Amino acid sequence: MAQRKNIARDDILLSAHALLANVGFHGFSMRDLADEVGISSASLHHHTPTKDEMATAVVQRERDRLNKRLASIGAEHEDWPRRRPELMQSLTETRLTAVLMAELAGLPPKCQAELRLLHSNLIGWLTRFATEAIRRQEMPQNTEPEALAGTMLALAQGAALYSTVAPVGPTWLLADLRPVTSAL
Amino acid sequence: MAQRKNIARDDILLSAHALLANVGFHGFSMRDLADEVGISSASLHHHTPTKDEMATAVVQRERDRLNKRLASIGAEHEDWPRRRPELMQSLTETRLTAVLMAELAGLPPKCQAELRLLHSNLIGWLTRFATEAIRRQEMPQNTEPEALAGTMLALAQGAALYSTVAPVGPTWLLADLRPVTSAL
DNA sequence: GTCTATACAGGGATAGAC
DNA sequence: GTCTATCCCTGTATAGAC
Question: Which residues, numbered 55 to 114 in chain B, qualify as contacts with chain A under a Cβ-Cβ cut-off of 8 Å?
Answer without folding.
Answer: 80-82, 84-85, 88, 98-99, 101-106
